[in-house]
Amino acid sequence: MSLPSSSQAVFEAGPSTPSRKRSRWEPHEALHDDAEMNEPQPPLKRRSKSKGTSLSDPRSQAVTPEPRSQIRVVVERQRPRHSIYVPPRTHHPPLTPSRSVYSYERLNSIEEGSYGVVFRARDKETGDIVALKKLKLDDEKHGFPITALREVNALMVCQHENVVGIREVVVGETLTQVFIVMDFIEHDLKTLLTVMPAPFLQSEIKTLLKQLLSAVAFCHERWILHRDLKTSNLLMNNRGQIKVADFGLARRYGDPVGVGGLTQLVVTLWYRAPEILLGATTYSTAVDMWSVGCIFAELLLKEPLFQAKGEIEMLSMIFKLLGPPTTTTWPDYSLLPLANTINLPAPHPSQLRQRFPHISVAGIDLISRMLAYDPEDRISAEEALQHPYFRESPFPKHPDLFGSFPSVAAGEKRRKHPDSPHAPVRAADYKLLTEFDAP
Amino acid sequence: MSVPLYPLASLEQIEETPSLKDGIPYDLEEDLRAYGCKLIHQAGILLKQKQVAVATAQILFQRFWFVTSMKQFGIGDVGMGALYLASKLEECPIRMRDLINVYDLLLQQATHSSTSKLVSQSKHAVFKYTPMSYFGSTFYDLKDALVVAEMQILKRLGFHVNVVLPYGTLVNYLRVLGLTSKETVCSRAWGYLNDALQTPVYALYAVPTIVCAAILLATRHLGIPLPSTPPNCWWELFDADWEDVWSVCGHVMRLYRERDASDQTRLLSMVSKKGVRKWLDDHAVLN
């Protein structure tokens, strides 16, 4: 929603021409658009100040002819300059029906989850390689499933460079065939962590974590909770960029949370925040931040932080690592529905330093604030981006300097395939490397 | 923070709507759109649904008729589908059976009042609702139609079902203009925004333009002067163009003109696509 303050909403209009009105319907030239979207308009008091000059006066007729060298400037000024909060009409997409799935040529299937199948496919028109996710719509009693709606909507709302891009939604012949078309990304972080010979460097972890945090901050700002952040849902391309994917459990949230509350059946166990484990139904953005903390730890350890088999074990692992919650670290603990059913272990201090002996003080501070017990106290994505950890040496590595890896999803050299009769030669080398690295 | 972009009809879609291509005149389409939205609104009230869901449904409904002809789908079914879908989008889902019953009640009521008006004024029969049978085929037919309508809305809008509602913007603009102390302006402008949901403007113009039109109508009606002579035009503060604001005002004001009872009866007979097709056949013979 646009929230223009008085100064931002005032735009400086160029001299008006008769064709100006109709031009709203025409696509603006790229040059003009870019200038318009990228540079925020200066907060102007110009209107009142420069009343005498003809250039800032939208209705003035007299325009002195400009020298030729300034023509570009004139072109930019001829159209009304909108405030960045009110894009011109042509920036809004037109109403367009879904295309047919037959616009794509199916290549190979990538994975099959509980929520549907993902295929790799090629756009017949442009040749682009994409990921097609088929939504499961069989025997739905309540029309189009609300979870699928949330997924599509969340992806459309959260268009960000570190969120997997949704291109469109296409349909098959019958009404039960619906596919989400997304950018194809070569790797997921989970597979990458298990096959790569050495853990990520500190500088690389900082880059990845910053990207993840900016994506999460972006979603939260648009009132979307992801609710299933984990390394296998973080995709990574060969240019050092990660993309948050799988919004199958995402939903919009409100402040305060609406009537009925939220379900506790969310987030993969290993990444699930303690308040959900203890039955809270009014959780919020902090649950995603707990997951981010677990992912941060996993990047450092090269294996998941909490590998519990059940909810009780999960809680005891958390208590063991961080020390049981106290009235200072989590004042509202006793109010949680399941708090009475849990026997807390004897108090002991947090073991984070012992678990991560090689990370800096700032790094320990960041991870402990992501894994803070009290959701109110847990660091937000926006705050985390400003954390000193990202501003101390070693600095975040530029994404272009990341190495590239063969993509399992694209069917490239499957390195880990014991049954394969002709294992690629490098796989053997690679095995040696991992064995060498193993403790 | 970047601005959310929402779909708006293209120039071609506005110049010749799918219904117009099928021979449905523009003013009839306008009436049917408005009536469909009224039904959504009434159903929303009876279902005690949140206004955000009702408004979202009406905007989706308006968008739908820029990509689909009323010869293909009825305004009743699509209205139900839109309200059902919007309730999910706004995280306040409703039961199919409740929705179907409410629509059935509303249509029976409308038929009753329009026929009793025509018969005679003195013999005003009391309306009595006859509910459909619980396992009857009427219910299952309507349920199928509802599911199809919901899916068709999604498919024909390309799943671009994000909607930006105007209310927050109105509050901000009223603050900027220093009008928040005048309660009559606020509630009146708010009312115009709600009435505008019965017109296609939310599928035609960006929210700031529509909000400016609501403020313009409210302040003009109450005789409150705002700077309106160039170069100081208040709507330019909000990036709206006069022509657009004026056009939105026109759309809204057309809702309030006097109408015949026969217009209402004609609309009622065209709630389903069958009625629309019959009307088209009848008028094809005449031409």
TrEMBL record, chain A:
Residues 24-35 have a biased composition (Basic and acidic residues). Residues 104-390 form the Protein kinase domain. InterPro entries: CDK, CDK11/PITSLRE_STKc, Kinase-like_dom_sf, Prot_kinase_dom, Ser/Thr_kinase_AS. Residues 51-63 have a biased composition (Polar residues). It comes from Cerrena zonata. This is cyclin-dependent kinase. Its EC number is 2.7.11.22. It is an enzyme of class 2 (transferase). Belongs to the protein kinase superfamily. CMGC Ser/Thr protein kinase family. CDC2/CDKX subfamily. One of its GO terms (cellular component) is nucleus. One of its GO terms (molecular function) is ATP binding. The lineage of its organism: Eukaryota, Fungi, Dikarya, Basidiomycota, Agaricomycotina. Keywords: ATP-binding, Kinase, Nucleotide-binding, Serine/threonine-protein kinase, Transferase. Pfam families: Pkinase (PF00069).
UniProtKB/TrEMBL annotation, chain B:
GO terms for molecular function: cyclin-dependent protein serine/threonine kinase regulator activity. It holds the Pfam family Cyclin_N. Residues 26-160 form the Cyclin N-terminal domain. PANTHER family: CYCLIN. One of its GO terms (biological process) is regulation of transcription by RNA polymerase II. It comes from the Eukaryota. This is Cyclin N-terminal domain-containing protein.
